[in-house]
Amino acid sequence: MPFKAVVFDAYGTLYDIQSVAAVTEQAFPGHGDIITQIWRIKQLEYTWLRSLMQRYEDFAVVTRDSLIYTLRILGLPADAATLDRIIAKYLDLDPYPDARAALAAMKPHRLATLSNGSPAMLGALVKASGFDTLLDAVISVDARQIFKPSPEAYALIEQTLGLAPSDVLFVSSNPWDVCGAKAFGLSVAWIERVTPQAMAAACIKTELVAPLTLFKALRTQMDELGFAPDYRIAALSDLPEIASQHEP
Amino acid sequence: MPFKAVVFDAYGTLYDIQSVAAVTEQAFPGHGDIITQIWRIKQLEYTWLRSLMQRYEDFAVVTRDSLIYTLRILGLPADAATLDRIIAKYLDLDPYPDARAALAAMKPHRLATLSNGSPAMLGALVKASGFDTLLDAVISVDARQIFKPSPEAYALIEQTLGLAPSDVLFVSSNPWDVCGAKAFGLSVAWIERVTPQAMAAACIKTELVAPLTLFKALRTQMDELGFAPDYRIAALSDLPEIASQHEP
Hints:
homodimer; alpha/beta; Rossmann fold; DNA polymerase, domain 1; 2 domains; 11 helices
């Protein structure tokens, strides 16, 4: 029996968060990579820390605060207009090149996204990419005021779609998100965009590393959290075949 | 009225977690810095993620798993004996040079540590450093099966010492820990070991950076989580004067 729904993470899975690098580089020439990486690392840290501190603020606040942090620690002064211009890219991130075709090929299934993004951020993003016509639901953790990987966030899939976890294939490129979804009880496909071989090769020169390499080392390799994905795929284009089978 | 108790974070505050670098470098020559930094970054990530996933395992497990992750993604094979030898350093971390004198100078106050460490790890650590004779209590979050910055972790101070938050000065060098303690309602002194000026200067060469520089960028500068420390000090030796006053 096929999965009844395929639910996607948004940031890093359907949309390339690294696509902010062009904007950060334009705003601060020579600093684009380090801003992009520290910003993303801190953005996620703040979602976890605020959730754990029971001090939820939505992803728009966290995204802005983590950018403010990044520019401050790099000693790069920014006015409100510059901050706004950089952050605006989050409303128009580049989709991965194979995202549209993969979604279209899976239209027989119900399709949704479950994201840390605020409803306003996600609404703008799916509209800008035209995915709003392909997705049956755009689910934001904001409804529960806690970020992934809290089980409460993943529970929103069943509450929104009315489908049991066993009927859902969850898709993410983020290892911590894969582990969180598995811990919750979903079937999970992990998009492994950086192979272990490429990762180890990039780290051979260990005295100095590119910020992007450090980002990949921290956030693209499967975590040691006691869980493993059901499916390990290289790209979104591998999904339609998996979605039509069901052997989790 | 002076604070009745001064409660210290352990890892990074009383004890220098960077002192594992000598051991990681010895085990994997040329890779000591990158192992040390990724290990520590992932160790904390795993405490936050496991807490949020409601999948607590103690700090000994998290410390081992994060080291396994680090060596795997760097393509460095390790047998159990090598893992054990590296991890053993966590039971004998170097105290900061001014830690003993600062603790001794504050003996009129009740002194304790509140740490993510497991009871066994903390017991070994305070004994190896001789701080067991200076501390009135060694408090592990393990009693609540959740890591800092959960409010449940900070609540252990009152439960253990029988003192209200307003009677306690909490001390940490970890910005996320400072914010968590402030959110809980404690008075907090932040040990700012890396000045903003030093941080920005280290990041001027942004194309390639040392892993230690990236670590400092991620984990030594005050976070944007809506809280600020009551006291901002440069070293543990600044504490005794603060502890004897009480104007939080």
